[in-house]
Design goal:
With about 650 residues, this protein is α+β, with helices and mostly antiparallel strands. It has 5 domains: about 230 residues, 3-Layer(aba) Sandwich (Rossmann fold), CATH 3.40.50.300; about 80 residues, Translation factors (Elongation Factor Tu (Ef-tu), domain 3), CATH 2.40.30; about 70 residues, 2-Layer Sandwich (Alpha-Beta Plaits), CATH 3.30.70; about 140 residues, Ribosomal Protein S5, domain 2, CATH 3.30.230.10; about 80 residues, Alpha-Beta Plaits (2-Layer Sandwich). About 30% of the residues lie in helices and about 30% in strands. The protein has 18 helices and 34 strands. The strands form 8 sheets. The chain has a 7-stranded mixed beta sheet, with helices on both faces. A 6-stranded antiparallel beta sheet has the order 14-13-16-9-8-17. Strands 23, 28, 29, 30, 31 and 32 form a 6-stranded antiparallel beta sheet that branches. A hairpin with a 2-residue loop joins strand 2 and strand 3. The N and C termini lie far apart (about 65 Å). InterPro entries: EF-G-like_DII (IPR053905), EFG_II (IPR041095), EFG_III/V (IPR035647), EFG_V-like (IPR000640), P-loop_NTPase (IPR027417), PrfC (IPR004548), Ribosomal_Su5_D2-typ_SF (IPR020568), Ribsml_uS5_D2-typ_fold_subgr (IPR014721).
């Protein structure tokens, strides 16, 4: 049985130490490494050793009781949460590690939220119970209060000791058929364990354990219970399908696509069809990774995780075969920064290096601004920038700096409009009509095809859709990416002789821009949802601070001498509040921010004035259309283009 198990935790909860102990206990490694000794098996990158934190998701393999396990160690710092979330998509089960000393921290809540959103069955391991200040009973109370009451605690191996009476009762309360057997005293221990396995798989029950990874307390019992209570049912009979969850380049420049096989068998030399394209790519090599080392194999079967060479068009989140839709992610950057490099360097070469990094981490969303001759990147925070600087220096041997982090704004529209685009220089021809409608918040760009095949061939219709999604398109207020818009293709026209490659791209982009210029555009900014816990006497100060920071608070929840405040506010206002909050609460309060999507900008006019975007000067984005008359091309301004459109006459 193949099982993929993910390790998740807030930084310093002991996740990597836990991984070392599991691998050592299963004889996958000969010696236990330590983060503080800079020799842990999975934190093998020099930057990880230097900083003592996990930055890149890495895979280790071990066998236990006849099952093969793929252990994924994920980053524990929020700046690297996109890397963590990409790994979530292929996990069969997750282990959430919580420190018994520090308890539930900000990122722990974020992880729990993501695990529930992605419906990943979760085991909890409470670590560091040997440390001074640990309080298991208090932490279990907090977990039940902040996460779920469906927590069942075990302190010994179920395989050898069996379930206790109160545990059986707890399970039966969540299984109607078992409850009937329990009340009639006709249940069996085997039936109870089967029910427990099913409830865990269905995310209806969450087992919790405790121990010390560093002192090897409770880890072997946990491992035995994990093996006993988990199962997968991958089939090798069906046609191959899989999900790409990561892309990396090895030291020789080979592009490695990491794939979780979900059905069937993948063989070397197999050909993989690129979705919606008439292109196939061939699998040249299949690698089974263990840490930073690998062995090659001739095939991969369902349930395994492999790295393959030969694929160039599949990116993180893409699917192969019948495995579902492409992955979407919730941990997205809210900041941007520009790359600063020596002007003696070739700018296109520097850009090519960042394209490689973007291939490995799509959330970077590299943008080349031709007018400014500037590379811009999207990031989660300043720690990520420090790491990127080191990565570029080590891999590409160049020194770079980054400009200050700025808020990553977006733009949308608030009314329905139709955009028209026409591109007809001599011996070229394409016309596109699209309808733009306000979409649901945080749903991105949606596309609907309302065009009849009598007006435009299916091939040209698909081409227009491709151009809609080929990149982020700029809005007209501050040049920010547009989002939350439904774009419908109404009609279009081609010419049998003159329409050629690129014509529909030009017409589509002009139609989109022309429509945006007619609509009522608005700026969106990222928001945080927050949870603040302070002493009751500090309630007034915190509420006052939130009002000043353009944030809204829900009615406070008072618990004894403490108060919990939930609310929502702009990232631009809240992002630097953490240090001030520590001073206000004398270090005894707790504050947690979770990204809560985009919403209308609280200071739109101020942002427009600050950025000073000139939509007319952005030559890459024009609403003007190009027409041809008597062998001569002429340009019509977007405001007048509609009356010239061929499809309307």
């Amino acid at each position: 049985m193949n099982k993929t198990i993910g390790l998740l935790a807030h930084v310093d909860a002991g996740k990597t130490t836990f991984a070392e102990q599991v691998l050592f206990s299963t004889k996958s490694i000969k010696n236990r490494g330590r983060v503080d000794y800079k020799n842990s098996f999975l934190d093998n990158h020099s930057i990880e050793k230097e900083r003592g934190i996990t930055i890149f998701s890495e895979q280790a393999n071990f066998e236990y009781n006849g099952s093969k396990y793929y252990l994924l160690d994920t980053p524990g710092h929020i700046d690297f949460s996109p890397e963590m979330e990409r790994a979530l998509k292929i996990m069969d089960y997750a282990i959430l590690i919580i420190s018994a000393v520090e308890g539930i921290q900000a990122y722990t809540e974020t992880l729990w939220h993501l695990l529930r959103m992605h419906k990943i069955p979760t085991f909890i391991f409470i670590n560091k119970i040997d440390r001074v200040g640990s309080d298991l009973e208090k932490l279990m109370f907090e977990i039940r209060k902040q996460f779920t009451v469906d927590i069942i605690y075990f302190d010994e191996s179920l395989r050898t000791e069996g379930l206790k009476e109160q545990q059986i009762e707890f399970i039966a309360e969540r299984d109607e058929r078992l409850l009937e057997d329990y009340l009639n005293d006709t249940y069996t221990d085997e039936r109870c364990v089967d029910s427990l396995r099913g409830l865990i798989k269905q995310n209806k029950l969450f087992p919790a354990f405790s121990g010390s990874a560093l002192q090897d307390i409770g880890v072997k019992e946990f491992l035995d219970n994990l093996d006993y209570l988990t199962y997968t049912d991958y089939s090798e009979i069906n046609e191959f399908s899989g999900r790409v969850y990561k892309v990396k380049y090895d030291e020789r420049g080979n592009r490695i696509s990491y794939i979780k096989a979900t059905a069937g068998v993948l063989n070397v030399k197999d050909q993989i069809k690129v979705s919606e394209e008439d292109i196939v790519e061939k699998i040249n090599q299949i690698r089974i990774y263990n840490g930073n080392k690998f062995i090659t194999t001739d095939k991969a079967v369902a349930g395994e995780i492999v790295g393959v060479t030969g694929l160039t068009r599949f990116n993180a989140g893409d699917v192969i075969g019948e495995v579902g839709e492409k992955s979407t992610y919730d941990m997205v950057p809210t900041l941007k920064s520009k790359v600063i490099f020596d002007k003696t360097l070739n700018e296109k070469e520097v850009l090519s290096y960042f394209r490689i990094l973007e291939d490995e981490d799509p959330s970077l969303n590299i943008v080349w601004d031709e007018s400014l001759k500037e590379i811009q990147i999207h990031v989660m925070g300043t720690i990520q920038l420090e790491v990127l600087k080191k990565v570029v220096e080590e891999r590409f041997k160049i020194a770079i700096e980054f400009g200050p982090c700025e808020i990553l704004y977006k733009e949308t529209i608030q009314e329905i409009t139709v955009g028209y685009g026409h591109f007809e220089p001599l011996k070229h021809y394409a016309e596109v009509h699209i309808k733009l409608e306000p979409g649901d918040r945080n749903q991105g760009i949606k596309f609907e095809n309302l065009c009849h095949a009598d007006d435009l061939t299916v091939g040209h219709q698909n081409l227009i859709k491709t151009h809609v999604f080929e990149k982020d398109h700029k809005g007209i207020l501050v040049g920010a990416p547009i989002t939350d818009i439904k774009i419908s293709l109404l009609t279009g026209r081609a010419h049998n002789k003159h329409t050629s490659g690129g014509d529909f791209r030009e017409a589509t982009l002009r139609a989109l821009r022309q429509g945006l210029e007619k609509a009522n555009s608005r700026i969106l900014e990222p928001y945080y949802r927050f949870r603040i816990e302070v002493q009751l006497e500090q309630l007034g100060r915190v509420i006052s601070d939130m009002e000043k920071l353009s944030s809204q608070c829900e009615p406070p929840v008072i618990e004894g001498d403490k108060v919990i405040i939930f609310g929502r506010g702009p990232v631009s206002k809240l992002m630097n509040y953490g240090m001030e909050f520590i001073n206000i609460s004398s270090g005894r309060g707790r504050i947690n921010f979770i990204f809560d999507g985009y919403d209308l900008c609280h200071n739109e006019e101020e942002v427009i004035a600050k950025i000073k975007y000139d939509k007319k000067a952005d030559i890459e984005y024009t609403s003007s259309s190009v027409f041809c008359s008597k062998g001569q091309s002429f340009i019509v301004d977007g405001s007048k283009a509609e009356s010239y459109m061929h499809c309307l006459h």
